[in-house]
Design a protein that fits this description.
single chain; mainly beta; 18 strands; 62% strand
Amino acid sequence: MQATFMLFLSFLGLSFHSLAQSASVSPYSLFGHGLMQQNAFSYHGILGGTQAASTSRLYVNPDQPASYADIQFTTLDLGGAYTGVHQSTANASLWNTTGGFKNMGVAFPLKKWMGFSAGIMPYSVVGYDMLTMGSNADFGDFTEQFKGKGGYNKAHFGIGVKPFKFFSFGVNAQYIFGSMDQSTDLIFSDNQFNAVKLSQRTLVSDWMWNGGAQLRVPIGNLRAVIGLTVRQGAALSSHYDQVNYTYILGGVGSETPLDTNSSNLNEPGYIFVPTQMAIGFELSKPVKDLPISAWAIGMQIQATDQLFLLPFTTGPLPWTLPGAWSGPYTENGQRISLSASLIPSLTFTEKRLKSYGAEVAYRASFAFERTGLVLNGTPISTWQGNFGVGLPLGGRAMLPGDVKFATLHIGAQVGQWGTTKNNLIQEFYTQAVIGVTLNDQWFVKFKYR
């Protein structure tokens, strides 16, 4: 118990440092709040985010707080990823890479009908560095450089309750924090003109909420689960810095600032996170006396009110505007995901499979999303395919009734963002996912000592 708790504290400190690093190399992170990240740890990430109807006694599901009521053991989830991205236009292409520690979460039962969870992960990431060339009749040739880094993080604290055998509900308090740094440089080929920089920083620090419910229906020796999750749109307290100044460009990219043209520091306002709703269905075969299912299949449909997504503003709330927000998100977002998993030794019991490979959990999923982002009149969509395994690392008992075991999650993801049509960029990425789930039975009461 103490060892698991100390490990949790150690990784909590590490996570704040790691999540502060840029985890994106995508020019699409220029828009809105950056690239939105999946609200999932390694297990559900490999399953493509089919989380609304997913319930487990072993794994933390931060997107569906109703599932916390089923947690049987104290559970610690840790995960990371390494991504290679091939970015191409109609005329050129290149490879970029990024990766590192990504998320951490813990959950434990409070009662047989109640569970608690806390965790931290990226909410959005920003990372890009782009150049464009141009010419002006008055100033001659110039280069415009766009840079961005940072993003917002999310810490959740949630509770799930199961008041009836076949029904549970829960709620998460989510603390969004972090900063998004963006700059635009205008550099003239003619040295008689000084370079100009516009530097912007948006800092966010506020709470929002999401909730969910699950209904379980037994069908013979199978179990069907219907799940619903809702994230209410929220105006999050933010501050904004903007400085516009001229500078002299030195060697190796150094700058010598000259005159400040304008500045606006620590301006209070907000960003707006849109409402999101998901409904899911899962069919599985539970295994008697075991906290896992022999197999499961699931699907989920998610809708996001992207028309109301707002970057920093001091103006009125979105629903008080005379028309829809005129930013690049001019459509609502839709996402559909499908998943399947099985453990051969539990699924094909008549074959009496006993090898280690038969004890491994095999998982696969596919997801397609219309992001709501429209550029050059072209809707931006994305798809992702996943395959992974859950490797049991064995269990041990220190005392009678004490349980300790772990699962290593290894997955491979491939996907695509955008298109090369209409002078846009297409990104094809491959990602290696690795995570571990540690389960430990705390608070064991003994009859004999």
